[in-house]
């Protein structure tokens, strides 16, 4: 198994693949003034579909759930089937920087904890054309919650994801690229610890055993443990910011 296969194997059975909560998905949804009719939604980087199912349950919508890895999409289909929501959801194996959608397709583009894979700037710019005019973008993205922070933390995240920034700067990116901000909040600590890190840590022993304590498996668990420790020590300085923005029409020639 490659390193990537191992990572997928560790994460595919966890309830979610990144921090978040149903309450916060609903909080973001509540910021949108959506027409009371069947909506078209894309959930990009959906993983095993925690947010996809919340959206299906709470809107009359057809959702296209996109992920690069079929293992997550298979799990999403199992989860959706269990709760009777499979008819609302179509899965699509695709990379988020090469999406096969037509312009002006979606009322809502949703993406929790995933846009970092291509970068916030590139993702928000590229996806805009797929939104209908006045369509909504809802993305959660790692965000500094203060202006200053300890060097160890700053170095870690700047190495892992150089686009990490404050909400003010993320909002500026949205405003410079054809969106108006509708609302912003950041995820609560329990959305990291209870909903994400604790269920993930419960998998570590079985994962190591399943993969015979291979060097790669041990390295993956070590990396995850370090990330958990970092969050526990420095949670006052960063979180996932949830950004809800609306597509505005820039100029007659814009898409
Ligand atoms: C941190 S997880 C978040 C998953 C889910 N949205 C959640 O909140 O539980 C990031 C997701 O992005 C997916 N991903 C990574 N690179 C991708 C790409 N280039 N295109 C589409 N999905 C990608 C991963 O497979 C993973 O499911």
Automatic annotation (TrEMBL):
Pfam families named among the record's database cross-references: Methyltransf_11
UniProt domain Methyltransferase type: residue ranges: 43-138
The keyword Methyltransferase is assigned to this record: yes
GO molecular function: methyltransferase activity
SUPFAM superfamilies named in the record: S-adenosyl-L-methionine-dependent methyltransferases (SSF53335)
Keywords in alphabetical order: Methyltransferase, Transferase
Coiled coil location: none
GO biological process, one term: methylation
InterPro entries xref list: Methyltransf_11 (IPR013216), SAM-dependent_MTases_sf (IPR029063)
Protein's UniProt keywords contain Methyltransferase: yes
Tree of life domain: Bacteria
Protein's UniProt name: Methyltransferase type 11
């Amino acid at each position: 198994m490659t390193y990537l296969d191992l990572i997928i194997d560790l994460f595919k059975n966890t309830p979610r693949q990144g921090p978040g909560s149903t309450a916060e998905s609903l909080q973001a949804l509540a910021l949108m003034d959506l027409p009371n009719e069947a909506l078209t939604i894309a959930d990009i980087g959906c993983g095993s579909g925690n947010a996809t199912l919340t959206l299906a349950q709470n809107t009359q919508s057809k959702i296209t759930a996109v992920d690069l890895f079929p293992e997550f999409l298979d799990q999403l289909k199992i989860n959706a089937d269990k709760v009777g929501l499979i008819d609302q959801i179509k899965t699509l194996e695709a990379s988020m920087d090469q999406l096969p959608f037509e312009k002006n397709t979606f009322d809502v583009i949703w993406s929790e904890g995933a846009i970092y894979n291509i970068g916030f700037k590139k993702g928000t710019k590229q996806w805009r054309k797929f939104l209908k005019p006045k369509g909504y973008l809802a993305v959660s993205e790692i965000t500094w919650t203060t202006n200053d922070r300890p060097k160890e933390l700053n170095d870690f995240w700047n190495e892992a994801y150089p686009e990490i920034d404050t909400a003010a700067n993320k909002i500026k990116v949205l405003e410079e690229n054809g969106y108006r901000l509708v609302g912003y909040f950041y995820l609560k600590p329990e959305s990291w610890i209870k909903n994400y890190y604790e269920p993930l840590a419960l998998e570590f022993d079985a994962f190591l055993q399943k993969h015979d304590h291979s060097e790669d498996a041990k390295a993956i668990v070590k990396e995850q443990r370090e990330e958990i420790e970092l969050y526990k020590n420095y949670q006052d300085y960063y979180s996932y910011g949830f950004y809800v923005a609306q597509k505005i029409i820039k100029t007659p020639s814009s898409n």
